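chain below, 205 aa
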Amino acid sequence: MTNIMDVEDKMITLRNQQVILDSDVAELYGVQTKEINQAVKNNPGKFPKGYIWELSENEKSEVVKNFDHLQRLRFSPQLPKAFTERGLYMLATILKGPKAEETTIAIVEAYAKLRELAQVIVEVSQHEDDKAVQQSLMQRGGQLAAELLTDNLPIQSSETSVELNLALFKLKHTVKRENDDEIAQLKHELAELKRMVHPDAQLSV
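prediction:
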């Protein structure tokens, strides 16, 4: 089952946009990358300029360097394609079936929650004189961040706490995990969320 965390883990920032590369889109939809690119090729009218674009050589080198899950692109002779939010929505009108529907819903939810969280962070600093409004915004921000981080998160035996300091509010997320690898993965997911919604956010563990 594709969930919000699956989508969030694939999002990267390129050209000041949150995008997902074609190989990751294919993984989310459970198909081969060539099927995704063929769908785009067969429906050029659905993908105007800005909906999908090919990475430059430098961009490819940067994503391979900075994102562990994209190491597989290192030896590929092809330049990957980046799907923007609009491009992903258009792709959703082409791909059919239960898996496609499930994945599309997860993509829509992930983008919507990240966008709302970013807006909440901005609004918190704009209501410094109204503590009631600020507190309400902080609670909503914590809720959104928790939803992004805990969707389908398994609860197991040992416990760890992680704090994510986004602008003026903190999300303290306590989870029960069985081993250090899973704890490390959660910390990675928190760092990625911090990077996407606020470049100056601080992560403390």
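The beta strands are 12-14, 17-21, 52-54, 81-83, 158-166, 169-177, 202-204. The longest strand covers residues 158-166.
thats it, cya
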